Amino acid sequence: MEELKIEPREYQKTIFETCKEKDCLVVLPTGTGKTLIALMLTIDRFKKFPLEKILILAPTRPLIEQHFESFKENIPEDWADMQLFTGKTPSTKRKEIWRTAEFIFSTPQCIANDLNKNLYNLNKVSLLIVDECHRCLKNYAYNHVAQKYKTQATNKRVLALTASPGSDKQTITQVCENLGIDAVEIRTRQSPDVKPYLQELEFEKVEVAFPPEFTEIKILLQEIYNTKVNELKNRKILFGYASKTMLLKTQARLMQEIRKRKNINNMLAVSACVQAIKISHAIELLETQTISSFTAYLKNLFQQAAEKKSKGVQRLTTDPRFTKAYSLATTLEQEHPKLQALKEIIQKQFQKNSKSKIIIFAQFRDTVRKISEILNELPEIKADNFVGQTIKDHGNGKTTGLKQREQKAMVEKFKSGEINVLVATSIAEEGLDIPEVNEVIFYEPIPSAIRKIQRTGRTARLSKGKLKILVTKKTLDEVYHYTAYHKEKRMHSAIDEIKKDFASNEKQKDLF
């Protein structure tokens, strides 16, 4: 393709051939060039239908801006009129731009809003590109645009891109149905045509023991938890295994019932449910996070009780087992052993290579702050917190939250080496143009295949990389680690099944 400034790899050419003929879901590891396939298909469709438009969607503003820049970089200037839509562009202005623009880059929300106002329609769109398409399950705007496209466009073609579409057949099938997909192209790091282009990824599970001093606290909390769960079962409200998800669903159901009709059994059950959920979260913090985040959480519950925010929390904080657990935690002279393990891993890596770049992922902002604080004690480390936009108050005048421009500025500092360790929440998992890193470290395993795959894709692209997952033995860490592993395996077998389904449908069509 003479219009492209970069040469596609063999697997990209193969996938492109499928995408030319069918509405295709492309599943490729992060950093293996999904965008180039989108570029190739864009050029192909634009040549076929020069008077029609190409619509490129991505779920966040930084991500769609990134695609816009990437297209501008790789397609010659003046080849097409490329325009970026954001919420900041007034809808009347978007209507004007839509008339003359040829390639439109937008978040799904902008397009969905404009379609609802009938500012324009999608009948002259010859290609719809949907990035991070696993969001098409919960993202109403994505679904809305996809449905409108199916009914309005004359020359339809859909390209759906993701590193991980979901972990079971039902979920992936739903994504395919929402987008009208009829072919799947999947590659993994191990695929024979992809492997030569990727560097070796060294994986290590770093195990630490759960300290006996912590166990004493956990036993007290577990007793409260069991009491509350048994109460819910005795009230005939909860049946079977009491997972955190099940408790949250039970609480939501009870609240709905109470709104319709107040009932003493349900009201007392809500109180027990609230306490069980709070204790479940406290145990998770104790087992997998840091002692400082655990004590901060308990302290916050005392604060809520003092402000009489919830009867359930008031009851919980007067439980002698709860007050004893808090007292023991505040007198501990040690932090969670994962913090020490992490410090040692970082030191070793920087001794080997002083120009290293590392990303550490952690679930909670309190943990992110603590990790940065501890790592910045090391002379060669310049760590900073990379978190979402929402401003969160952590007490004592401490807040966290980064606006999109601040996130971009931090990524630039990371690229230049001004920061060499990025300690991030889930915000750094998806899409953002974060440079290649030597090591990705999970402070805790996460029970999601999608998020695990996205985090892992941050390393071992251009040079050898390492993935390390910290696991506290005999805790939720172990449960989550194996959950993600099995979900990832299920995802690959589900995609294989769906591919076979599409292939057999094609054969049936050929027969009739």
Question: Could you walk me through the main structural features you see in this protein, from its secondary elements to its overall organization?
Answer:
It is built from 18 helices and 15 strands. Helix 8 runs antiparallel to helix 10 (264-288) and helix 8 runs antiparallel to helix 13 (320-330). The strands form three sheets. A seven-stranded parallel β-sheet has the order 3-4-2-5-6-1-7, sandwiched between helices. Strands 8-15-14-9-13-10 form a six-stranded parallel β-sheet, with helices on both faces. Helices cover 52% and strands 13% of the residues. The chain is of the alpha/beta class and 512 residues long. It has three domains: 10-196, 3-Layer(aba) Sandwich (Rossmann fold), CATH 3.40.50.300; 199-208 and 336-474, P-loop containing nucleotide triphosphate hydrolases (Rossmann fold, 3-Layer(aba) Sandwich), CATH 3.40.50.300; 212-330, phosphoenolpyruvate carboxylase, domain 3 (Up-down Bundle). The longest helix is centred in the last third of the chain and has 36 residues, at 476-511.
CATH topology of the largest domain: Rossmann fold
Tally of helical runs: 18
* Tally of strands: 15
What do we call the CATH homologous superfamily of the largest domain? P-loop containing nucleotide triphosphate hydrolases
> In what range is the share of β-strand residues?
5-15%
Mean pLDDT, all residues: 88
Which structural class do the helices and strands define?
alpha/beta
| Uncertain stretches | none
Q: What is the CATH top level name of the largest domain? A: Alpha Beta
Instruction: Specify the helix fraction band.
Output: 40-55%
- What is the count of structural domains? 3
Gyration radius from CA atoms, angstroms:
25 Å
Identify the overall geometry. Answer: globular
Distance between the termini: 36 Å
Largest sheet: 7 strands, parallel
